[in-house]
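In this section we walk through a basic example: taking a raw amino acid sequence and producing a predicted 3D structure, encoded as discrete structure tokens. The instruction is simple. Fold the sequence below.
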Amino acid sequence: MAARGPRMRNDLATVRYDDIRTPVATDPDVRSVGAADQLGTSVHLGEGSELTFERARRRLREFGFNESLIRAHYILDESGPVTLPARRFSTAGVTVSPGLDALVHLFVGQEAIAVNAVHTAIGSDLFADLHELGLISVSSEECRAAVRAEPVDAVILCADRVQGRSFDNEHVLNVWNRSSKAFLKMLPTSHCETFLELCCGAGPACLTTGSGAADIAYGIDINPRAIRFAEFNRLLNGLHNARLECGDLFGTMVGTRFDRIVAHPPYVPIVGGRAVFADGGINGEPVSAAIIRQVPQHLTEIGAFYAYLLLSDRRAAPAEWRVRDMLGRGHEDFDVMLLVNREQSPVTHESDANAPVRPSNGAELLIQACIDLRIERILITGLVIRPRQGREAVTLRLAPGEKFGLGRIGNDSAALDR
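The resulting token sequence is shown next.
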């Protein structure tokens, strides 16, 4: 019998946070996103004691640094590919504490604030703990966040500072972006024994929905720097049932099965790969296809796979049936369900201003690749794969807004049978 959930390294002594590069402004007059993100410097996330992490976590929660409170009190710009605050914050007629205000300006707004003002707003204890953990950098006059920190519900996830559309190869993407939000929205919150997030980055699924729903949640990413961030986030949030591991998809999971597998793989079509988190190859599908091919070997009999990814309709080959081809022999033992969020022509997709990362300068090559592969439509879609459990397998495709959306599929997937 296959093992259910492997042992994975969770020894803090083996996890170091060296060489995490984060863009930091060098111009002391720059106080918001933009020119502040032109240069990079080495920022060391600290290996603080358990007490330091616990103190920082408690004080951040006491100040109300959680998603619902921030979204309720601040006007956020939802128009761009990354959810950013307005250049100058405004409150919705509600008075917020100076501490929360300082934290939001620092970690979400990425603004520089006078050291004395931050010290007064959040208190000397939290100031010292954030500095020890490497979350803030302090000069003689100014304090800046060394990372982008965004709460998903009450779980705080640190990642690289937002740099517009310019990314280093090992950039770790923040979670407040449209595609990550859509991915998290589709995940079930019901209990399961084992949970696996592939391409986990900073850990948005395994450290939130996964940790909350599963007895044990695992996160895997090929980018060592992403795992450093994810492990730091695990410690910051005091999550004892999450395990993080650097690896290539299921490479460290041979012979193991999970009740729930989720993935938000890189799917941006790119010529000459750039950022690991975005590089979807010439057609956006290679990583997704590699995952789908291996899903049957890693799901339990009651398991399910959830992904948010790019697929394509090709001449005489709709995306849902192409998924069955990826599953290979035995595909008839699984349901395949697409919940399409957006459909575009290949030309429109290559020029999409709302994409998390714009396609590379080889747009002409990408469009030619679509022609060569007979790609007719690009789909940004949710995908669910699950064992058919003794009945005829289902192949289903729901258009945007049809029947119910991504937000309902996770906890009401049985409705698809109706």
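Looking at the output, two observations stand out. The chain has 13 helices and 17 strands. The radius of gyration is 21 Å. In the next section we compare this with other chains.
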